């Protein structure tokens, strides 16, 4: 079976009514990308896209992204999917961009429900006490409205990612979901109902995925203490991670503000082995291209260790180092007994967290060429 190479897609680079209300008409995070500056000696900023700033909800631009990804071995865009009590957020990159592109059939897509608090870190101040603009806890009625729409509008698409015919759906903050639903038994009942609706819509089942991590990064994140128990209790079909920083101390004071990319890699290689041994379901390894959330801080403030987004920054995350990590992930996947083979990559376009595959003005397509070298046909 060919390995699915799924890159997380962060859809914050197109206009959205919520951002208009919070930041002004037409605002996107391109503003933070363009305003980024070096904060200490050796800090590479601004990191700029070779394509310039574009509207990802424009199907013509989405078509360029699809061709670039598909030509370099990326098989799936795993869209960060936002849905709050009062409805969706940042959905036009998917609905108006990717799905309307004339070549969308070249790639698969799937959804990762990003059920974390949306806070005002665009940018945040030195005090780092950002306002919660949209709470990640949504409640059962909103969850059912969301999943009903996903079943109807997304799972039905011929290029939606499935394993054995079952649509792939990932939950980012499993701990928040459990708490929001009232505990493990209640959360299990909610997910069982979700599966029933998926089957009623004509699918053989639901491939439910948990994001697991060892430490929190964002303020307000609720991690699970025993992922193996939760995987059993909630009947997850596989697990993965979102980024290396969930298994590596970017908030520790030692050697701040530097963190070696290779150190983060070694920490995550150990996590792959750990979770493969204890979860009881497939663990799909994650490889991160980089990490630098400094664009989300006020550039005139000092850059000190004050918690996300004032964290350590990965250094020496060269295309060669990224390729080495991909090769380690492939070797790990090839050793696993499970039929489903998949890797998640952080990220296609997390420019304001320093993790992206789109070409930049320094390395061009080098990170994508690394994927093609390791996972291409």
List the main descriptive attributes of the protein structure presented here.
377 residues; alpha/beta; two-stranded antiparallel sheet; 11 helices; 16 strands
Overall average pLDDT: 96
Count of alpha and pi helical runs: 11
Span from first to last CA?
A: 12 Å
Q: Structural class from helices and strands?
A: alpha/beta
Q: Order of SSEs, N→C?
A: EHHHEEHEEEHEEHHEHEEHEEHEEEH
How much strand content do the residues show? 15-25%
Model description:
With 377 residues, this protein is α/β, with parallel strands linked by helices. It has helices at residues 17-23, 30-35, 59-71, 92-98, 140-153, 174-181, 184-200, 227-233, 261-278, 319-335, 366-375, and strands spanning 4-9, 76-84, 87-89, 108-113, 118-119, 132-134, 162-163, 166-171, 207-211, 238-240, 258-260, 286-288, 313-315, 342-346, 349-350, 355-356. The strands form four sheets. Strands 1, 2, 3, 4, 7, 8, 9, 10, 12 and 14 form a ten-stranded mixed sheet that branches. Strand 7 (162-163) and strand 8 form a beta hairpin. The longest helix is centred in the last third of the chain and has 18 residues, at 261-278. The model has no long low-confidence stretch (mean pLDDT 96).
């Amino acid at each position: 079976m060919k390995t699915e190479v799924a890159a997380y897609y962060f859809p914050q680079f197109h206009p959205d009514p919520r951002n208009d209300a919070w930041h002004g008409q037409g605002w996107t995070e391109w503003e933070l990308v363009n305003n980024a500056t070096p904060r200490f000696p050796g800090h590479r900023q601004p990191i700029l896209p070779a394509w310039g700033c574009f509207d990802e909800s424009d199907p013509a631009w989405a078509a360029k992204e699809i061709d670039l990804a598909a030509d370099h071995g990326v098989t799936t865009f795993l869209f960060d999917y936002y849905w709050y009590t009062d409805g969706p957020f940042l959905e036009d990159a998917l609905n108006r961009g990717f799905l309307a592109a004339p070549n969308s059939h070249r790639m698969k897509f799937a959804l990762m429900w990003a059920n974390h608090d949306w806070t005002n870190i665009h940018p945040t101040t030195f005090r780092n006490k950002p306002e919660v603009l949209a709470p990640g806890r949504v409640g059962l009625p909103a969850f059912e409205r969301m999943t009903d729409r996903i079943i109807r509008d997304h799972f039905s698409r011929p290029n939606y990612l499935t394993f054995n015919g079952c649509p792939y759906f990932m939950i980012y903050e499993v701990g928040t979901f459990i708490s929001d639903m009232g505990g493990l038994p209640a959360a299990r009942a909610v997910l069982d109902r979700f599966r029933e609706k998926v089957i009623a819509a004509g699918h053989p089942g639901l491939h439910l995925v948990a994001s697991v991590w060892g430490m929190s990064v964002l303020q307000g994140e609720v991690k699970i203490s025993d992922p193996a128990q939760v995987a059993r209790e909630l009947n997850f079909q596989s697990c993965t991670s979102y980024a290396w920083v969930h298994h590596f101390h970017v908030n520790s004071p030692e050697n701040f503000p530097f963190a070696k990319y290779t150190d983060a890699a070694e920490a995550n290689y150990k996590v792959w082995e750990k979770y493969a041994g204890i979860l009881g379901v497939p663990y799909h390894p994650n490889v991160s291209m980089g990490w630098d959330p400094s664009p989300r801080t006020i550039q005139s403030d000092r850059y000190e260790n004050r918690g996300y987004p004032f964290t350590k920054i990965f250094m020496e995350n060269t295309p060669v180092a990224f390729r080495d990590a991909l090769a380690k992930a492939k070797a790990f996947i090839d050793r696993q007994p499970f039929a489903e083979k998949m890797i998640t990559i952080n990220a296609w376009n997390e420019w304001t967290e320093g993790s992206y595959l789109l070409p930049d003005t320094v390395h061009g397509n080098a990170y994508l060429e690394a994927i093609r070298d390791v996972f291409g046909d």
